[in-house]
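Researcher: Quick sanity check before group meeting.
Model: Go ahead. Protein one:
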Amino acid sequence: QVQLVESGGGSVQAGGSLRLSCAPSGYTYSTYCMGWFRQAPGKEREGVAAIDSDGSTSHADSVKGRFTISQDNAKNIVYLQMSSLKPEDTAMYYCAAEYFPFSCGGSWYPRGRLAYWGQGTQVTVSS
């Protein structure tokens, strides 16, 4: 069983920055897709960014140029650096991981047998 431990959420004014971290614990595999999703009240969960075990990344159009996903392979941590935050970025942010995924990119949604979700971390951006 894999647990995803998220940290780094909080409240910030528009234009500010936050960095989210996601650290998996438990037995993990070297082939994976990891990323971040977000869900605002009354809206569907949407993909924000993803990174695979080769380091290839993808970002949603709404965050391109403002958010950057990266990973520290030595520490096995995935980060989401968020800059130029807007009020519409306010949401619960969820870390997700899938091992041996069919694909990893803009259309990725973890639903396989080795798919895991974090508990979520709140990001609130005030105007």
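Researcher: Fine. The other one?
Model: Protein two, sequence then structure:
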Amino acid sequence: QVELEESGGGLVQPGGSLRLSCAASGIKFSIYSMSWYRQPPGKRRELVAYLSRDGITNHYEDSVKGRFTITRDNNKNTVYLQMNSLKPEDTAVYYCKATYAGDFWGKGTLVTVSS
């Protein structure tokens, strides 16, 4: 059974940092490209960051470039999203996605940026 479990969300003040983790099980993690998406309250889900299976190719949504970093550890079957200089508009539920022949999604973790 495939499972993606996000963790690391929470409440943080503007300008603060959080690191999200997504632990995968039930898949051969190293062959999957990994992505982070987010869904702000009342809005559509959007791609935040993408990382290829070899960890070489990445892509970021414009508003997070220079602030967020996606990495992966294939030995731990885990993908990370380091989020720095957080802004209130980063508030959302964050989801990880694994893609190979199809997609698998986690259930999400809530990030709230507020003073």
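Researcher: One line on it for the slide.
Model: The CA atoms of residues 90 and 113 lie 7 Å apart.
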